[in-house]
Write a structure and sequence with these properties.
The protein is mostly helical and 390 residues long. 53% of the residues lie in helices and 8% in strands. It contains 13 helices and 7 strands. The strands form 3 sheets. It has a 3-stranded antiparallel β-sheet with strand order 5-6-7, with no helix packed on it. A hairpin with a 4-residue loop joins strand 3 and strand 4. The chain is globular, with a radius of gyration of 20 Å. It starts with a helix and ends with a helix. Glycine is lined by residues 69, 172, 234, 244, 358.
């Protein structure tokens, strides 16, 4: 009896120890984001065309224009800080940075509309119901829909690299579908919902290997809809499992299940999670190397952004499951991130997290802070808080 009690005490303690410390995480994020605001104020941005922080280059803050795919993450981070703290200071800052992205609603040259507009205006609308934000979401969805090709059944990702692909679709594009689902809810026009479902189905059919890992880029023939190529762009090899790509897949199908309740999306999300967590190269702390198949595993850089996206997705997936496995895994990831991958307080120009990897093959953004890691980390904290408070 005594041994059994000791066992339950230890098991209980270790489960407790794996939970994120919400208060400490919010305090750290608040401190870092105050620093970031002051660094943005000091940055060289005379024409004021640079609207949002993205990363550090040689220790210097890199700000980007609204057309950059990452431009919506800082305002999204500010919205999440507002949601976590209920402090109106963050709301005012979020409104200020969100407004700087509005012109993207006209930009039909890329698929990144969801990243840019939904993380900023989408969160803003969710938290304020500002009718101006609603208008921006609807206009953006209309613009994004122009990139849909009914023959392929998907939204074209890039216009660049046309020497390599006629009609490239990247797994990341799944994240843009949330904006389309929302546009149907706001407008009553089912066209956006249908495009999102078609894109999700086409991606489900063509982007995944038998083991449920995903290719990064699928090149389609825009006239026939046939798959022409399967490649990578930011991963180690065409046949490898780029960590953030797996994260986008997990997040994308979890979100599609929320929006449609189609069980095949839930099954896909669970299969992707299974691939990620049973992979022999998944480290014990659950923060993946930048590519699961990178050649020098154990000395390869990590990608904390992939971990943050996976943790956020897992919290949502845990609400569609009747056991605690996804919730416990997400908690463990969040605990690891906070203990080992946080920016040291007062450093990194105010980025919350360190040690993400953007594009290792082009030696770009390797083992650095990236704003989208911060964004999905705070989103994961919000999701954690909502789960434990319900
Ligand atoms: N969507 C670009 C990336 O994940 O790096």
């Amino acid at each position: 009896m005594r041994i059994v009690s000791i066992f339950f005490f230890i098991a209980g303690f270790s489960t407790y120890a794996q939970k994120p410390n919400l208060k400490r995480a919010i305090t750290h994020a608040t401190h870092q984001t105050n620093l970031m605001l002051s660094e943005i104020g000091k940055a060289d941005n005379e024409s004021e065309t640079l609207v949002s922080p993205r990363t550090l280059v040689d220790g210097k803050l890199k700000l980007v224009a609204s057309k950059d795919w990452t431009s919506g993450f800082f305002s999204g981070t500010l919205w999440y800080l507002f949601e976590l703290s209920n402090n109106d200071k963050w709301k005012a800052e979020a409104q200020k940075f969100t407004a700087k992205i509005e012109q993207e609603k006209y930009n039909a040259k890329t698929h990144d509309m969801g990243f840019k507009v939904y993380c900023s205006f989408g969160n803003g609308y969710r938290l304020t119901r500002d009718p101006q934000y609603r208008e921006v979401i609807l206009h953006s969805a209309k613009t994004l829909a122009t990139r849909f090709n009914p023959k392929v059944g998907a939204i074209r990702s890039w216009d660049h690299s046309s020497d390599k692909w006629d009609f490239p679709v990247i797994i990341d594009n799944m994240l843009n579908l949330e904006l389309l689902f929302e546009a149907t809810k706001l407008s009553g026009d089912s066209a956006y919902y249908k495009i999102a479902v078609s894109h999700a189905n086409t991606t489900l059919k063509n982007h995944f290997r038998a083991n449920y890992s995903t290719w990064h880029v699928i090149g389609y023939d825009p006239k026939t809809g046939e798959v022409v190529k399967r490649n990578t762009h930011q991963g180690y090899a065409d046949a490898s499992a780029w960590a953030r790509g797996q994260a986008w897949a997990l997040y994308g199908y979890t979100m599609c299940y929320r929006e449609t309740k189609d069980p095949k999306y839930l099954a896909q999300a669970k299969n992707v999670a299974n691939f990620i967590f049973t992979h022999k190269n998944m480290p014990a702390d659950f923060v993946p190397y930048w590519d699961f198949d990178a050649p020098n595993i154990t000395s390869e850089p990590r990608d904390v952004s992939a971990a943050a996206v996976i943790a956020s997705a897992l919290y949502e997936l845990s609400t569609y499951s009747n056991n605690n496995d996804y919730f416990n895994k997400a908690n463990k990831m969040m605990k690891s991130i906070a203990l080992k991958y946080n920016s040291i307080k007062g450093t990194n120009k105010g980025f919350i997290l360190d040690h993400s990897t953007g594009a290792k093959p082009s030696n770009s953004e390797v083992d650095v802070p990236l704003i989208y890691a911060d964004y999905y980390y705070l989103e994961a904290l919000v999701r954690y808080k909502n789960i434990v408070n319900n």
